[in-house]
Specification:
Distance between the termini: 47 Å
Strand order of the largest sheet: 1-20-2-3
Strand content: 15-25%
Oligomer: single chain
Radius of gyration: 32 Å
Number of helices: 20
Helix content: 40-55%
Largest sheet: 4 strands, mixed
């Protein structure tokens, strides 16, 4: 039997790159139904302002989303899930969001060249053979994923443009000193408590159980005892570590690899910038615009005469970089809006430019360092080239060695020796709970649950640390076992629930007595023969492991006042808590942490700023649905 016909299409090769499309559901009310003309790409499904979403675009995205879900869920995929998850609505929402981002990027002058798109695509490992971009493989992989080259290339252009849009919008984020102090307080506040944990297990003997209770509990909660689809398999695994010691890389191979991947070692034209930024609202009055410009012209003159630019930025700039002396970091061509890019790349290291107006305000930019585009020599890149080539050869060797083993098993012949090969059998397992001892348990579960029939043998699949394949030995469908088979599970579940009810009721009564001074927490702990926990003072980020508190429980703890007794629920546990020392922070170390906190806050503010910006665009946009297009 020819090897060629054995190999099935590896359409999941882009898993993690194409992946399941991350879509944000947007609730659009009041669709306007219109009958519009066809545009390039076919008839239109909907319009986002003046940008069309074609039926071809929508249906293609929907089909890929369904296929991604099918691969992700395996045997658990059901057509009903598509409606339950609102996949059609999510796909539309994602396309609408994409159109809005592209419209905004265009308005701001953000452009992506064909060369940038080509460079990104050529760097994707899934399209490379022997470390070099392979046009044939590129078309093959796209075809197996129901994508045309034109469509995929436009998707990459969109990704690059939206990345730049996010960065540009984030430039307007500001963080006040008060916000930094509040963040410091939340991070560094410590509290001292005495905690009496009331685990439900303490009250199990009080949880009376009858056979009728168990039968009723089973009938009311049958779905809790459902067993999901299960599989039993044989597996074979070869780690990259096992073959890596035998991998060598001769000088001529390294030079050939360097030649194949020269683009990786090209150093782009780059500038390191500092700025003084004065924000302006879009509808700023002419006198406000002129005032901001004149102020920056004055600062420009000071800087050109020798004034410390970092000091000027700290004193005058109105953005998060002010605390860092205006340090904006480094930028390559295409990573800034055109107005700033033209100014920055026209300057030499150490020069201060003219004030530049953008849609967010005025910028005064200084180039701290300028790195001109060049190609790293082979000697400069050699260590990285060798690391890359050895890893590439190790993966190829592991795949080839394991494939030889699979071929032998298919042909019912003795398997060839492979250094480091391991193999074994699993018991029955669900996709959510693969065998814990297996080194690539998620990859194994995914592989096995894609097999359709007993005896089917998979092709090789790459895990994080090695390669594997599997054979499906047996399978069980999802089902609810009869009461007799799960009687012990039903009893355990019922007792746990009833014990929890008892624990909460007792805690409520004891809380009243403790608050009224009729009980003492330490005495109650002795009566129950439970250890009273008295951990050292702790912060929100360093809650002692013995407390294992969730976010809501932590908030409740840090609200307690000195001497106050509280009742806190944490998972299935109930705590009675005495506050010995209320939450407080040592402000003496504020100066040490201030800048790192400001940076973290600025990053989060930038993310939220982008989301708010997109929500404003969404609110102001017009979404019109074509007649005949139904979700």
């Amino acid at each position: 039997m020819l090897r060629f016909f054995r190999e099935r299409g590896n359409s999941w090769i882009l898993k993690g790159f194409l992946g399941v499309v991350a879509l944000t559901f947007i609730s659009w009310g009041g669709f306007t139904m219109v009958q519009g003309p066809a545009v390039e790409g076919g008839r239109v499904a909907a319009w986002v302002n003046d940008s069309p979403i074609t039926l071809q675009e929508y249906e293609g995205t929907y089909a890929r989303q369904v296929e991604a879900l099918r691969r992700q869920l395996g045997a658990q995929f059901k057509d009903e899930l598509l409606q339950q998850l609102g996949v059609r609505q999510q796909v539309l929402a994602g396309l609408v969001s994409q159109k809005l981002q592209l419209q905004e990027a265009g308005r701001l002058g953000i452009r992506v060249s064909d060369a940038e798109v080509a460079l990104r695509i050529q760097g994707i490992a899934a399209f490379q053979r022997g470390g070099r971009f392979d046009p044939g493989l590129y078309r093959q992989v796209l075809e197996s994923n129901r994508l045309s080259p034109r469509q995929f290339e436009e998707d990459q252009r969109v990704q690059i443009a939206t990345e730049r849009l996010r960065r540009y919008i984030g430039m307007a984020a500001t963080v006040s000193e008060a916000e930094v102090q509040e963040a410091y307080r939340l991070v560094n506040e410590q509290i001292k408590l005495a905690v009496l944990p009331l685990a439900p297990v303490l009250f199990e003997k009080e949880a009376a159980v009858t056979e009728k209770d168990l039968a009723d509990h089973y009938e009311k909660n049958k779905e809790q005892f459902r067993l999901g689809p299960q599989r039993k398999a044989q597996w074979w695994y070869l780690s990259y570590d096992a073959v890596r010691p035998g991998i060598t890389a001769a000088e001529e191979e390294l030079r050939a690899r360097y030649d194949q991947t020269r683009a990786r070692y090209a150093v782009a034209d780059e500038v390191e910038l500092s700025q003084v930024f004065l924000p302006l609202v879009p509808d700023a009055k002419p006198e406000q615009v002129e005032e901001a410009k004149k102020k920056l012209e004055g600062l420009r003159d000071q800087a050109r005469k020798g004034a410390d630019f970092a000091a000027l930025a700290k004193a005058e700039s109105r953005d998060p970089s002010a605390s860092r002396g205006g340090d904006m970091g480094s930028f390559k061509r295409g990573e800034m809006v055109p107005e700033l890019e033209r100014m920055a790349f026209a300057l030499k290291a150490g020069e201060v430019g003219e004030p530049v107006r953008t849609s967010f305000g005025y910028h005064l930019v200084k180039v701290r360092e300028r790195r001109y585009a060049r190609q790293l020599t082979f000697e400069e890149a050699k260590a990285e080239v060798e690391k890359d080539l050895r890893e590439l050869k190790a993966k190829a060797q592991a795949r080839n060695d394991l494939r030889a083993v699979r071929y032998a098993i298919e042909d019912k012949k003795p398997a060839p020796a492979a250094q480091g090969l391991s193999a074994g059998d699993t018991g029955f397992f669900t996709q959510e709970s693969p065998p814990p001892a297996f080194p690539e348990r998620e990859a194994l579960a995914s592989l096995v649950f894609r097999l359709a029939k007993k005896g089917d043998l998979s092709s090789e699949a790459e895990g994080e640390k090695g390669v594997l394949f599997a054979r499906l030995v047996d399978m069980r469908d999802s089902h609810i076992p009869p009461f007799e088979q799960v009687a012990e599970d039903v009893r355990r579940n019922f007792v746990e629930e009833k014990s929890l009810q008892i624990a909460r009721a007792k805690a409520e009564g004891w809380l009243k007595e403790l608050s009224a001074g009729k009980r003492d927490l330490a005495v109650l702990a002795k009566e129950l023969n439970v250890k009273l926990l008295a951990p050292e003072p702790f912060s929100r980020a360093r809650v002692p492991q013995e407390l294992s508190a969730g976010p809501e429980a932590i908030r409740a703890l840090f609200r307690l006042k000195k001497g106050e007794v509280g009742r806190v629920f944490s998972g299935r546990n109930v705590w009675l808590v005495l506050c010995d020392e209320p939450a407080s922070a040592d402000m003496a170390k504020f100066g040490e942490q201030k800048e790192s906190l400001r940076t973290r806050l600025a990053e989060e503010r930038q993310r939220l700023l982008f989301l708010r910006h997109m929500e404003a665009l969404r609110q102001a946009s017009k979404l019109r649905m074509e007649k005949g297009f139904n979700l």
